[in-house]
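Box 3.1 A note on notation
Throughout this textbook, protein chains are presented in two layers. The first layer is the amino acid sequence; the second is a token string describing backbone geometry. Keep the layers aligned when reading.
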Amino acid sequence: MPDDRDVEEFTGAVMALVEVIRRGQSRAFNTEHVAMMQLLAAREALLPSQIAAALGVPRSSITRRIQELQRTGKAEIEPSVSDGRSYRVRLTPAGRAELDAMEAKGRELFATWIRDWNSEEIRTFAALARRLTGLPHPAPARERNGAWWKASRT
């Protein structure tokens, strides 16, 4: 069982990490738009009410975000055939490309943070972060011994 000093040290380290990430994100991009783009990338097309519920924000704030993403070509609106007042929002190829570019830039930034770490330190940190956040552990990488079809011919 961790003692008070351990908990205090852990809390300080986690909060410092969160603050570094938060400041970096707010300088690099509009976090609200990226959250919506990530949501749309993970699903096909969503109603504004579904977007608001998934992001935990008021429905009224979603309309402005949708309009901005549509204006910049990152999202498109698809009118509902059954209800003329309703519509679905879909990420455009340009929106997906921008999201992919941001994710690549983020990976590059993280790579600079850990450039002096060894593989064991990286795996340990990743496992502990997954445990802390409740994320599942990734499946172990399969060992590759060449093309599968070559092995079956012998």
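The chain has a mean pLDDT of 84. Helices lie at 4-28, 31-42, 48-55, 59-71, 93-113, 119-133, 148-153.
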